[in-house]
Amino acid sequence: MSRPAFRSADPVRTYYAYNAAWAFFGALTTTLSMVYYVREAGLDPLQMVLVGTTLELACFLFEIPTGIVADLYSRRLSIIIGVALIGVGYVLQGLVPAFLAILAAQVLWGLGYTFTSGADQAWITDEIGTDRVGSVMVRSQQVSLAATIAGIVSAGALGLISLPLPLVLSGAGMILVALVLAAFMREENFHRTPAAERETFREMADTFKHGLSVARRRPVVRTLVLISLIAGLSSEAFDRLWSVKILNFTFPTVFGTSDPAFWFAVLALVGTLLSLISSLGLNKLTPARVGASHPNGVLALLSLLQVVGVVAFALLDHLWLALAAMWLRTIADTLAWPIESAWLNRHVDSRSRATVISMVSQANAIGQVAGGPPLGALAGRSGLRAALVTSGLILTPIPALYLRLREVRRTEEADSQHSPTTLP
Fold it and tell me: Which alpha helices (H) appear in 249-352, and where do they start and end?
């Protein structure tokens, strides 16, 4: 059956546009979402934590099943469904400022995210090949950062009119993106199991087992799953508590206001601009390391900078020094993501690519669900600084885990001389 003529968009341009739209509408929602939860929905601190926990639990529960759907049926269909669900979740929480409605929105948001997680990376890798995917992901990250800046500025402007407005508009925008993808996104290099040969549950089980086997057998994949778990153990507490520490400072008055909502938009904008500049600089100055087949050295350095950023943020009592430490952590994390994603994709075959990538994401969700509450309890018992320092110390094994892969690489290269068919 021939492909419809209207579905002819170039995969790389489609991937850039998709990530730009995702980043823009995501920033439109998240920039002032915390302010909205407090001022419009009247959530207390416990409810704020439960909102984040609900989102992570949804990601945890649905990550693997939705990844299997992408591997068995269609990456394209999985992405379209996910974007639409996220849009509905955005609209729901913007229209109904009530705790239960916001929880329901997090479930839709988490479910939608898991449909896209892994599927988008697997789709672009299938369409353009593993040789090109590294540079495309780095460029996509830069496009996304630029779109995020536009989203932050738009959220600030719309928030002056109405706090729910940016949330509702972002949801409508995501639904529109899903419709555009349905019309123009093509999928030519993915071959799903024919209906006559499909045994749904058996195929799903086999795909999951294959993905699990890949994660266990290949050192790079196995290590990245472990790193994702450790990062999750640390990140949930930091992501929830950094704003609490910042709110303890007195903000200067600019343009006649010292409102935290204004300053949070400014801080998000500055952090995104710094990440974009750093990404462009890294890609220009060290393109060989960014696109290297084993970029363990640069990833070890970036993960070490994240540790330094989190611990310094916890210990510093000056507003701008603390912000500099937080931005250091943000920049390092932003730079590491596309490099690590491309590295993972090169070590997974098409059959189970989305499933394995979903396993990595699920490991992060498990870490966040397991690590967030204990660190939150530590903050209540021993203080915010103790919880943030612990969050940073949890990350300390990650640089060593990246560096260990040097020995794995040498072993694999030695083995390949005896067996040309050996997979890394």
Answer: 260-285, 287-290, 296-315, 319-346
Nearest-angstrom CA–CA distance, 218 and 209: 14
Would you give the DSSP letter of residue 250? P
**317: which 2 tokens?**
């009592």
Q: Tell me the per-residue pLDDT of 75-111, one tens digit each, with 9 for 90 and over.
A: 888 899 999 999 999 999 999 999 999 999 999 998 9
CB atoms within 10 A of CB 280: 15
Report if pTM > 0.90: no
Q: Could you give the 3-state DSSP secondary structure of residue 257?
A: strand
Please report where in the chains the tokens 């343009």 appear, as a residue: 255
DSSP-derived secondary structure letter, 347: T
Could you tell me the domains of the chain?
11-185+200-413 (1.20.1250.20)
Please give the residue that has the higher pLDDT: either 291 or 315.
315
Residue 242 sits at φ, ψ, to 5 deg, of -60, -40
What are the angstrom distances between the C-alpha of 71 and each of 3, 20, 63, 265, 323?
A: 20, 24, 13, 38, 41
pLDDT at 148 over 80: yes
DSSP per position, 80-137: HHHHHHHHHHHHHHHH--SHHHHHHHHHHHHHHHHHHTTHHHHHHHHHH-HHHHHHHH
First to last CA, the chain: 37
pLDDT at 5 over 50: no
Give the dihedral of Cα atoms 22, 25, 31, 35; nearest 10 deg: -130
Q: What is the pLDDT of residue 7?
A: 56
Produce one character per residue of 62-78: b if its CB has 16 or more CB atoms within 10 Å, e if not: bbbebbbbbbbbbbbbb
The residue type found at 115 is F
Q: What is the pLDDT of residue 293?
A: 61
- Find where tokens 């409102």 sit: 259
